[in-house]
Amino acid sequence: MLIRSYKYRIYPDATQAKKLAECFGCVRWFWNNSLELSRKVYEETGKRPSRGDLSARLPGLKAAEETSWLADVPSQALQMTLINQEKAFQAFFAKRAKAPQFKNRFAKQSFSLPEGFRVEACGEKIRLPKFLEGIPTNLHRKFVGKIKTGTVSKTATGKYYISLLVEEVGEEVAITPPNEATCLGIDLGIKDFAVSSDETRISNPKFLSKKLKKLRRAQRKLSRRKKDSNRRIAQRKLVARQHEKVASSRLDFHHQLTRRLVENQNYGSFAVEDLGIKDMMGKAPKSLARQIGDAGWFQFRTILTYKASRAGKAVIAIDRFAASSKTCSCGCKNESLKLTDREWTCRKCGVTHDRDLLAAKNIKRFAFANPKLGREPSEVTRGESEPLGARRAAKNTKKGASPSLEAHSPCGGG
């Protein structure tokens, strides 16, 4: 069985939009209410209430006059809220994410349902539980299989989407063992978005930088608007629309680039760096951190990974501390290399290297210096290369002290 996700844009009418707003509001209120109770109980007893304890409150809340409106939405949406909150807490205690925060009505809204979705016979509508009529949907990609779960969301700009998790009949494509001759090393950067080991350069579109002036102007106008006024609400949507354009352009660029790479028959596998992007942005100057975030390296790597796996191609991540830019092919290291140095000459063999191209070639070379791939580890690598995600999964399984919730006030976040 194959599990794949499909995302479609939906177009609810006024009545359906009102019903969706009720669902978003109920789910958001129940999330905040359960989160506040969890934090309060944790501060008093040192233990969080279980998901069963929180779920047992639902019948009483629906029966109470002041919260009787919870009965107007699908009950499974409220149950899924508790499941998602439990996963958020698990990720927090495993040190993979921050503590769950309270939700507000101006951010992205969503609710999930484990079942009850049905595509209309005409193939242009999707029916949801407690909705009398199907919601018009742009089904631009067809699927054959059983819908397992679905998530309805509304963006800050007022657009509605539905993401379906579908169980399809078929076998997963087997990953072909990586071959150094057909492997493509990819070095991600800022001046050039990507430089590959076959000397191909992909320029960086810098979508955020191009919109930065317009974004700043729109944000200044927003800061001057009166709180809770209609003009402030309208200006907030204009700011959100500018950010949405940047994100959509970046996502489209990543999809097109990864599709070209994966469909190229000359490439049988890909080697990349396991970059610590969060640490890089935290330590870099503000302008450089903004450019790193604008490039969207993690999003590119994620898309490349799942598209390559569907095509039977491997993506190998080398250690983030491997000196890919400083190491000559002769093995000599240039420890004095600075970030501003785009070229350097090896003092041992006298070869002049382009920093980014050398990094791409070394990434490919280091990837196959892994004994798991049948080669002896190279002296120039610090740590082994391994399949993408393996190091992260191993790190998450290590035992350690759980983070404390005491630093997070029940009224904090938002």
What is the topological layout?
Blueprint (H helix, E strand, L loop, with lengths): L1 E9 L3 H32 L5 H5 L2 H6 L11 H19 L15 E5 L4 E2 L5 E3 L7 E2 L8 E10 L5 E9 L14 E6 L3 E5 L4 E3 L3 H18 L5 H34 L5 E5 L3 H7 L2 H10 L1 H14 L3 E5 L24 E3 L6 E3 H13 L18 E2 L2 H8 L17
Parallel strand pairs: 8-11, 11-12
Antiparallel strand pairs: 1-7, 2-6, 3-4, 4-5, 6-7, 8-9, 9-10, 12-15, 13-14
Helix pairs in contact: 1-4, 5-6, 6-9, 7-8
Task: Explain what this protein looks like in three dimensions.
The strands form 4 sheets. The protein has a 6-stranded mixed β-sheet with strand order 10-9-8-11-12-15, sandwiched between helices. Strands 1-7-6-2 form a 4-stranded antiparallel β-sheet. The model is unreliable at 374-414 (pLDDT under 50). By secondary structure, it is an alpha+beta fold. Helix 1 (14-45) crosses helix 4, helix 5 packs antiparallel against helix 6 (230-263) and helix 6 (230-263) packs across helix 9. The chain contains 11 helices and 15 strands.
Q: State which percent range the strand residues make up.
A: 15-25%
The rounded Rg comes to 25 Å
Average the pLDDT over all residues and give the rounded result.
Answer: 84
Helix content: 40-55%
The total of helices stands at 11
Q: Largest beta sheet, briefly?
A: 6 strands, mixed
Order of helices and strands: EHHHHEEEEEEEEEHHEHHHEEEHEH
Low-confidence stretches: 374-414
Distance between the first and last residues' Cα: 39 Å
Count the E strands.
15
Categorize the overall geometry: globular
